[in-house]
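Quick entry, no commentary yet.
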Amino acid sequence: MDPSPPLNILVREPQGFSLWTGPPFSNGEPRVNLQVPCSSSKFSEDGSRLLAIKDNSSVVSIYESQNGREIASFQVPGLLAASLSPRGTYLQTFQKALPSQEKNLILWEIDNSTTVYQQFQKTMAKNNWPSIQFSSDEATACRMATNEIQFFDAKDFTKGVLYKLRIPGIASVELSKTPGSHVAAFVSESKGIPASVQIFVCGKDNPLQPVARRSFFRCSTVQLHWNFGSTGLLIVAQSDVDKSNQSYYGESKLNYLTTDGSHEGLVPLRKDGPVHDVQWSPSGAQFVVVYGFLCLAGFGNLPGDMAFWVCSEKRLLGTTKSECSVTSEWSPDGRYFMTATTAPRLQIDNGIKIFHLDGSLYFKKMFEKLYQADWKPEAVERFGDIDELVKFVKTNLKIDDISKGPKPLSQSNTKVSTPAPKPTAYRPPHAKNAAAVQAELFGGGGGPSEEMSKNALRNKKRREKQREKKAAADNGN
C-alpha cells in the first residue's frame, strides 16, 4: 500500500490564507508552505487545486495545492460567485448581469484559460450553486433550467446540451457524486398537487420515467444527500408551518429512497422532533441523523461538550469541550478532530483547536482574527480501512472501559420514609430526560459541563446575599 499522504490545513486571516503542513507538527508548530492575499478561498473536492478570490473581488486565481504554484488567473468583473469542478479541471463563475453582457454564467477550462461554456442566468440562489453540477469523476455534468435538466459532455462542452430531461415545476437538482449515474429532482407543491422528489437514471438512451419517487404534503424545501456509490438518497423535507404546534420553526421529516426501488418512505425515528443534520459514512453503507428537541452537543456560544466513540465497538474513548466553536471537522485520516472559532460569527477569542481521536488536546493556536480553517480534502481510501484505525486505537490508547450510562437503582422491599419533595422549577417535557441522555453520551457523571459555570456561580452568590439581606431586614422589623 502506498504511504499515506500528509495532512494539510488551510487557515485564512484578514491578510489572506496560508497552508499548514501536518499534523503531526515538528517541534509542536506547523510549517507554513504558502501564503496568498485573498478575501475568499476554497479547495476542489479532491483537494488537488485551490481557488482564491483576491481583495478587489474581480480576480480569481487557481493554485496547485501540493506545491503552491499559481496555475491561472481570471479577470471577472462584477463577480458574485465562483466554484471549482471536483477535480479542478473547470472554474465556474457567476457575474452581476451588465447591459453590455449577454451571458453572465461562464465555465472556464483552467489549464488553457479558455471559456468553454456561457449562459445567461437571471439570478443565483445559494442552494442551487454551482449551477453546473459535476459527478466526482467529472464524467457527468448537468444544469437545472426552467422546467428541465440539461446534460452535457463533461469532456467537451463545445457540443452544447446533449439531451434534456423535462420536469415541469422543478425547483432544485442534486446529481449523484460517485458515480454520476443518477439525478434527483425536487418539484415544489403547486395547485393542490403535493411536492415530490424523483430519481432518474442519467443517460440519453435511458427511460424518462423516474426509478423512484416520493411525494410530500406541507413541504416548502428539501435537502438532498446522496451516498457514496449512488445507491441511496436521504431527503430532509421541511415545511414552514408545524401543524402539531411543537416548533416555531416549522417541521422536518427524513425520507429515504433507493435507486433500485427497494425502499421508498420515511426513516423511522424513535421520537418526535426536528431533523437537525444527517450525514453518510464514507462507505455509503450507514448514515447518522441528529434529531429531536434534546440537544446532543452545542457549539456557537454554548459550552461545546464533545464525546469521542469507537463506532464499531460502541466504546467511549474520552470527553472534552471546545467552547464557542463555529466549525468542526474530522481530518481525512480520521485521527484528528479540528474545531475553530471564526469571524464574523464571533469577533473575539478566534482560534483553532486540534484534538486526538480520544478527545485529548493536541494543538491550540489563537488569532486576532480568523475567518476560515479547513482540512485539505483527501480520498479516504488512501489512509487504509476503518479496521486498521480501530486496531490503532486498541494498541496505542490504554483506556479503561467506561460505563455507557448510569446503572439502575437496585430493587428492595425495604420501605424507607422519605420527606415530601420540595417544589421545583418547571422543566419542559422534552428536557426531562436530558440528564440521563447526557450521562449515556458522556459515560456517566453528567459530562464535562457538570461543574457550575462562572456566571451561574456568580448569580448563585448574588441570590444568597440578597436572601441574607432580606432575612436581616425582616429580623430588624
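second:
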Amino acid sequence: MSGSLRPRPGGWRRAATVVLAAGWARPSPAAPPLPPLPAGGFRLLLLQRCQDQGFLPGAHVFPGGVQDAADRSADWLRLFAPLHGPPRFGLRPARPPPRPFPGLPDTDGAAAAQPDDAAPAALPDDVAARVCAVREAFEEAGVLLLRPRGARPAAPEPARALPPPPGLDAWRERVRRDPRLFLSLCEQLDCAPDIWALHDWGGWLTPFTRPGGRRFDTSFFLCCLSEPPPVRPDGSEVVRCQWSSPSEATESFTKKEIWLAPPQFYEIRRLANFTSLSDLHKFCLDGTSEGIEKWMPITFLTANAMVQLLPGDELYSEDSEYLENVMSSGKKIEDIMKESKTLHRLVLYSHHVFNIHVTIQSKHKHIYPKTYIVSKSRL
C-alpha cells in the first residue's frame, strides 16, 4: 500500500476536485436521455456519496478526494517523458499561491499533509493535485481523463475522456486498494493523466463548524469535455450520478431531490454565469495567466440562520481565532442584512434553503456568482 498523506496538527488534509462540464449538443449514446439544452449548453457531473460515508454522507458532489503520496511519486516522471518534464510538465508558469489565512500551519495557505515516508516531492503541488483529481474521477466514476503518451497538446478545444478499458471494475478495485496502481494502469494503456485539460478554478478550505470535524484544503479544477463520457459509480463511495446544467442542479436542490454542500452550491451558481461550453472553456483558457482564489469561509451563527462569510465581506475577519471558532450574534439574519452593504456570503436557512449575496467586485478574472435569493414563502 502506498503512503497516505497524513494531516498535520489541526486535522487538515490536502485534496483535489475536478468539475466535469460536458457539451450536450450531440450527447453520445452512452449519455442518459435528458431534455435538450439551449444551443451550446453544458451539464455538470454530480456524484451522490453513499449514506455511510463519514464526510458529506448522501451529498451530491464533484469527483474528487484526498491526495495520496502516490500522486506525487517520482515514478510519474517516466510516464510524462519524453515531451513533458520538470519543472512545469507542459503547463503554463505557476502563479503565486493564494495568500494564506493567518494561522494555517503551511506557508502556501494549504495546511498541507506530508507523505508518511517524508520523501521529497517529485511533482509540483499543482501537478500532483491534478494527478489526484484524475485518479479520483476514475475511482469514483470510471471516467478516464487520460491522454496518449507523447501526444502534444492539440489546438485549444474541449477534451475527450478515454473510452473505458476492458476490466474497468477490476482495475478500479485495485487502484482503490493501492493508489500506486493507477500509474500501472496508465502504463498499460500507454497514457498519462491529462493534467493539461484540468484548468485552475479555485479552492476551498473547510470552515470550522464543530470541534473534531474533518478539515480539507481542496484545490478545484475544471475540465471541459466535448461530450459526456460513460459514468459508472463505484457502488461503494458513490452510489448514483447525474448530469445537470447549473439551473437543473439548482432546481433539484431547491426541490429537495439532491443535497449540495455550500461550496458545491456556490460553484454551481458561479457556473450559471456561462451560457455555453465554449464560453466556459474560453474563460478557463484566458484565465490561466491570472490569479486564482482559495477561501476559508468563516462560520457566523445568527438567531435564525448559519452564515458562511467569504473574503471581501465586511464581516469577514482574517483572524486565526476563527480557525477553530465561530462568530455569533443574537440578532436575526434579516436585521444583520439590513446593516450590511459589502457582501460576499452564503446564508443557510435550512438544509435546502441557501441564499448567496455578492456585492463585491471580482479579483483578477475570477467570476463570482450573482446574488441568488429564494422566495420568502420557502423560508
